Structure formats: C-alpha cells, structure tokens
Amino acid sequence: MIGHLLRTARSSSVFRHAYTMLSKDDTIIGTTDAGVRAPGGPPPDTLVKPWSRKRYFGTLLFNIAAFTLPALYATLSKLWVADIDASFVVTTDAYTYIGVVAEVINEGLPRAAWNIIADKSNRSLADRHGLSYTLILFQSALGLILSVCFLGAARQFADAFVPSVVREASLTYVRISAFSALSSAIETAVASATRSLDQPDVPLLISSIKFVVNIVLDMIVISRFHVRGIHPSVNTQAATQLACNMTASLAGLAYFVSITARQRRRIKPVDGHQVPREARPSFGSLSTLARPGFFTFTESAVRNALYLWLVSGIVAMGSDYATAWGVFSTIRWGLIMVPVQSLEATSLAFVGHAWGSWRRSIGSDERRPHATKSQLLRKSSTLSQPGACIARLRAAQTSPARP
C-alpha cells in the first residue's frame, strides 16, 4: 500500500510560507463523506443521529473504544510475560520507550492534521485526501528510518533503558521491537488523518484488529493456556506483537485508501464545473503541513527528551525501580489516560472544523488573521455545546464566503 502511494507521488508546487487558502477567484466547496455540495445548498447530513461519527458524542464513543483496546492489551501482555519470567517484565518496557522516541515524529506533522486536514470549509475533499496521503507517506518514511536506527543501536539503547541484570538477554527483544516505530508511525498518521476527516471508524478498525489478533496469538503462544509443545519467551511476545501491529496498521491504511477512493468517485460536477477528484502526495502538501507541524515537533522533542532522561535515571537505580516505574506507566496510560486521550482526539477534530469555518468567514485575502476577544468567547461557548457547534458550522458553510 505504501508502494501505491510512492507510485502516485509527484514533485510539485512552491513552498508556502503561510496558511494555505483558496484564492478569492476560486469556488469554495464544502465537503462531506457523501460528496460535494455547491455553496448555498443544503447539507446532505442535516438529519444526523446523535451517535453518528459526524457528531461529537458519536465520535467520542468511537475514540473511547479505539483507545481502550490497546490499553487493555498492554496490561494483559505484562501479566503474561510475568508468568513466563517475572524478571523480564522490565524488558517489555523497552517497547514503551521506543514508542516514546517514535512519539516525537508522531507529534510533528500528525498534529498539524487537526487544523489543516480538518478544515472542511476551505478545502475540497480531494485536497484533504491529498494532504492525508502526503502525511502517511512522509511519516512512514520517517518511521522506517527511525526503526533502522534502533536496529543498529540496539546495544546502546539497552544500555540506557534496560537494567544490567537482563540487558544481554534483552538485546533480541530490542531488535525485534525496533520496527514498532514504523508500525506506530503508520498507525498514528492514518489515525490523525481519518479523525480529521470525520472517519473515527478507521482507528477503531486498527485497534480492533490489533487487539483481537494479539489476544488470539498470545493465548496460543505465551499465555498460561498456551498450546503444548511451545516454549514461550519474551522474544516470542515481541515478535507476535510486532506482526499484529504491522498487520493492523496496513489493514487500516488499505481500508482508508479504499473508502477515500470511493468517496471521490461519488463527487459530482458543481454548476457544470468538474470538481477535481485526484488526490496525490506532493511536496506542496508537505510544505503546508510542515509549518504548523514544526512547532509541535519541537515541543514533543524537548518534552520526551526530558522524560527519557528521567527514565534512564530510574533504570540506573536497579531492576526493581525500573519494573515499578514500568507498572506505574502501564496503569497510568492504560487506565487513567484513555478518557483523556479520547476527549482530546474528539475535541481537536471539532476545533479544526470550527477553525476552518472561522477562517473562511473572515475571507481568503487575510493572510494573517487575528480573532477578537468576542469571537474567541463565541467560539469557545459554541465548542462547549457540540450540537450547537455543528449547527453553527453548517450555517457558516451554507452562507457564502465574505469577499
């Protein structure tokens, strides 16, 4: 699937130094999953059920399910590894710390998706899909580079984040888990793009496949009920986890490409004019995502560097301290942070929609817009009421853009 994106890539366009807007001579087209509507036309999803993925509550339900499944598996996998050999529980934290490093690239361009790809008031459906393909392709390349670096520096990584008691025995685990950076990059890029496109079912599909296949394989291979004749080890758990993560990420990517292609085929001409249907990765889309993504990337790099510095100090204190910290982190991220992450992802998507609506209302000629206090208060009160937020967004999309 990544090869498909590579084959469709084209080098194009000039680097844009400001937020990309349509020119005043272009037709502003509101987009939905059903296709394209002309300005002034009624939105096709006027009667949307409260639990629909186009509503805040419906999207929140999808996101809660999508974040709960991986958190549940993380807890179960530690219990199963503890049954194999309790001393290797701390080894499984190497997978977590690889994910922390991967989080730096996953909080760069993917964070820009919330106000770029989620802007459905100013961007056509094909444009948003092209930005999504660019995001996924670029993040996949970064994830592959990062995985190769982890593979080559496995010993140095183990020296910093694995206690000396199990360090030598953990090298194979680190090398296997190195490519989790690639699967994480693909999964995060697809999840950010699809949530911005009001398709939270795609991240849910990825989490469901990953959870179900992981549970089945772990029950067969490493759990206390494993098949006779199999000698489970912590490396077996790493291999099955990596295989399941890659399978789920690529399945989600394939599903996303198929539904976006189907959506663009349903696009109909507007006022006799053919609406662009092609969506390809491009350097122009990359530059559009790069400017806002640079700030989130820098913030994430500093924050996670400080966190890893703290972790390396805890690991140096001994295996007991490292194990205790790993269990604490699993409980924190597995139980407490699920509702927080779900609310964050849902709110960011709808804030992105509101941003696009406000950006359109002030006109495309304003290159550096500034919101007044009254506008900020009005938008914040709107976002606090999801139903009213969607109603106002529809009203803004129905009215013509101000010249």
UniProtKB/TrEMBL annotation:
Region described as Disordered: spans on this chain: 364-383
Cell membrane keyword on record: yes
Membrane topology: Multi-pass membrane protein
Keywords: Cell membrane, Membrane, Transmembrane, Transmembrane helix, Transport
Compartments, record wording: Cell membrane
TM segment ranges: 56-76, 130-153, 204-226, 238-258, 306-328
UniProt feature, compositional bias: Polar residues: 372-383
Primary location class: membrane
Keyword Disulfide bond: no
GO cellular component: a single term: plasma membrane
Cross-referenced InterPro entries: Membrane_Transporter-Flippase
Name the UniProt record assigns to this protein: Polysaccharide biosynthesis protein C-terminal domain-containing protein
